[in-house]
Every structure is written in C-alpha cells, then in structure tokens.
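Inverse folding, one chain.
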C-alpha cells in the first residue's frame, strides 16, 4: 500500500477524489465534468491520468457502452499513508509534536476538542 500511495501525483489524487465521492463506477465524461469545476483539463489529460492510475493499480475500469472507472485505493488508506509520511518527514515521527503544531497554528473549538477526546479516550464517554 505504501508503495502505491507514494506514487500518486497531485493531479492523480484529484481524479481519485472524484472517484471517492462517487458511490458507483463513473464514466470518463462524468469524471471530466466533475473536474471541470476546478480544472480546464481536456479529455486526453483526464484519460492519461486515469490510465496512469490504472497502471499503478489505484483504479480499475470496465468497458460497457463506454469505460467506467472506480477506485481500488481507498481514501482512508491514502490518508493513513500520507499522514505517516508527513509525520516522519516533518515531525521526525513525533505525533505529539504534530498535534502541538496543529494546536498552535489552528485553534480548536470546544466541539473539536470534544470530538478529539472521544477519539483519544473512547471508553470514557466524552461528548
């Protein structure tokens, strides 16, 4: 999984985001339409990104009337790898330093803190 996630470019990640938001396999026209909101990529660019993702094993497709694509790499798996990679690169593996850095730059609301307590101490019934 690490090898796969490490190979995903930022453009490919944007294509994956579209596929992750969909509950069903998507035709390239729908993928391109979703990407048009933020990019002016032409059809060949989207096809190239999908081909690369397929070659990497991150997506698969099936030919029906047209090709339909779906993700093989899950969002949570990608996020987990990205977080671990970031933690190692930037914070030398220290989760404490990462959390301290987040709190220093991004103040947390009381709701955020309550949710985090629930994650950190699930058996104590916070909320």
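Residues assigned per position:
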């Amino acid at each position: 999984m690490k090898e796969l996630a490490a190979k995903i470019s930022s453009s490919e990640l944007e294509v994956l985001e579209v596929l992750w938001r969909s509950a069903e396999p998507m035709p390239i026209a729908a993928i391109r339409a979703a990407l048009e909101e933020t990019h002016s990529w032409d059809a060949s660019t989207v096809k190239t990104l999908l081909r690369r993702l397929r070659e990497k094993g991150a997506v698969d497709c099936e030919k029906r009337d047209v090709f339909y694509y779906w993700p093989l790499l899950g969002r949570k798996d990608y996020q987990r790898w990205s977080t671990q990679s970031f933690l190692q690169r930037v914070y030398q593996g220290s989760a404490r330093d990462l959390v301290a850095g987040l709190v220093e730059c991004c103040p947390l609301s009381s709701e955020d803190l309550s949710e985090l307590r629930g994650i950190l101490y699930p058996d104590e019934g916070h909320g």
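The mean pLDDT is 91. The helical segments are 2-6, 10-21, 28-36, 43-56, 75-91, 95-105, 110-120.
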